[in-house]
Fold this protein.
Amino acid sequence: MGLRSLAADLLPTALQGGLWAGRASGLQPQPEVASFAALNEVLSYLPKGDLKLVREAFKFADAAHLGQFRASGEPYITHPIAVAGLCAGWRLDAQAIMAALMHDAMEDCSVTKPELIQRFGAPTAELVDGLTKLDKLQFSTREESQAESFRKMLLAMTRDVRVILVKLADRLHNMRTMAAMAPAKRGRIALETLDIYAPIAHRLGLNQVYRELQELSFAYLHPWRHAAVNKAVQRSRGWRRDIVERVEREVQAAFERSRLKVGISGREKTAYSIYRKMHEKHSSFAQVNDLFGFRVVVPEIVDCYTALGVLHQLYKPVPGRFKDYIAIPKANGYQSLHTTLVSPLGTAVEFQIRSQVMDAVAESGIAAHWMYKSKESTHDAQQLGAMWLKSLIDIQDETRDPAEFLEHVKIDLAPDSVYVFTPKSRILALPRGATPVDFAYAIHSDVGDHCVAAQVNGEAVALSTELRSGDVVEVTTSPAAKPNPAWLNFVSTGRARSKIRHFLKTLEQEESYLMGERMLTQALRAEGLVMPNTSGDDAPAELTWAALVRWADSRNRTELFTDIGTGRKIATIVAKRLARLLMEAGQRPDAITLSLGRFTASAEDGGHGLVLLDGSEGASVKYAHCCRPIPGDAVVGYLGRGEGLTVHTAECTVARKLGQRDSEHWMSVEWAEETVRPFETAISTVLRNGKGVLAQVAQAVAMAEADITHLDMGDNRADDVTTLRLVLNLRDRQQLADVLRRLRRSPPVIRVSRVKS
């Protein structure tokens, strides 16, 4: 089939050669299909095998809806047949037609998705499931910004454009047959259609559907206004008939003289477009002077500009009323030349000039706008539109490959965004790749800070789960919860990242403050003195603290303690200065305090004081990854400048090098008698490669009640002998010994040892 012949086929019959028919609405709606026999006739473009599948889907839907009736009293099956007929008018494939026939089966007839997959295949079942999800969405369209978010969300969540097309056909037929419904329900559906579905049809280039949905919505929302505008149009039509016929005659003659082949058709503005213009410009019906116009369809793009010249030679153009949508297409791919001319009787007449391909795309183009977004293309918009339409024809009529066809018509209105619902149906726009943690922080920083779990569409998911458009997200919070540093590895919004970092920084400062206060207290005990009062109600103590803060060049006491806790200042040096200030104020070292300080201090650490480790220290204490100490190991602490306290094993080579270079920053640390959490350590296992080896290693570790947190096989995994490195969560050295013993007994293990540095 040629491109031009298809373009002609896609045009409504009244626009292919006949003149304006004089309809009050200006619409030529696609006729409805009332029976399966009639549907079978319009599906003649499908191969016989597909027609058989469609027939099976009809029988299934007919049986599912048996005994159900519409509000009008008609059998319910007439609605799916009509929807399928509208989809056939767009030449959708068999899967889409089947989905149209069964689009209400899951919602109204208790048909399950597995049942549809078994009978009709996964692609068709996915389409029906997508339509069912759209039907379940409840939305208030009162706020324009929310309506726009909903439109974007709707398009983004349905990656398969056929779901949207079937939904538009469903909505169009419902709007055509809504007279039997209650007035309140009609108004709600009409408002939703006008705010949501009509703009989507326009966005996809389905202008005929767009205009009809607008007109029907206007008639249901404002019946008196619709009737008044229609009546005014009918009254004015009589005196316009003569001028319309005269303009049509003169234009035809002008094109014949220029030997340009054109198709001319008349059009009349819809009642809704007239009303909207009156409302926006605060004008009366008599002041709307472009109620009718003409469409000129020419063979090629260059003929558009030739036709424009012919018209401008015939009638004078109205200044400022010319628009070139060929050079700069609209967002939905629409292309035409628009010009308004002054008729022989002084009235304004609008002309739209376009090629046959442009006309086909303008009236029936499905998502043609995505082609114009290609940054790599060097073609102009007309060539792109022709390429899109021609590829659609070739794939649909020759290869019949649904996957390839969908790839050409697939859309994603907001490629960098996902649109998700709160449990109360509020819509949030998040970057693609967003997680429940991003969602929680988008709601409120307190919700994010105390988030502990999440549910997506009613199912529990990990906090790192990537959200998809249309998901309903619910987060669970706990007052005791706090942000996890690991969240920074997967959050995608700047708000979540900054909030987590701010919380952790604040938390680290608090913990460093407490650590610094503890270290200074212990260091001061070694001088035989006790810490001055920090409550602020002791005037002499406040004078001492003020002098110490000035000496340390800190802004306040909090900063001084934090600097000690993070290693920026040495506790023993500060303690000696504080001891001098206290003795100047009249205090003297106490023997009991001095002995207590010596008892808790080590002779080799310069009097820093002893820190007990139980795993609850927070961000102020880190356990070195080079040696991964666990309870039972001899350990030392390195107070890095601005890094807090880092714990190493006493035999760690990294720690020894640091000790030689920076001895004054070392302090004594010991394990508490009881710890509150497990600790990580690493082991290296050399084993014979073979089937089930990894399972045997994991089983040996599990028998010792240890957990594997990380596993690395390196690059020699195909060799006969391989080295496996494991990071384990352990209570202490005793549990580590149990793990090593069990691994040595495992048949594939040649040797196993702890990674000490």
Notes: The domain at 417-492 is CATH 3.10.20.30 (Ubiquitin-like (UB roll)). DSSP finds 29 helices and 19 strands in the chain. The longest strand covers residues 679-688. The radius of gyration is 39 Å.
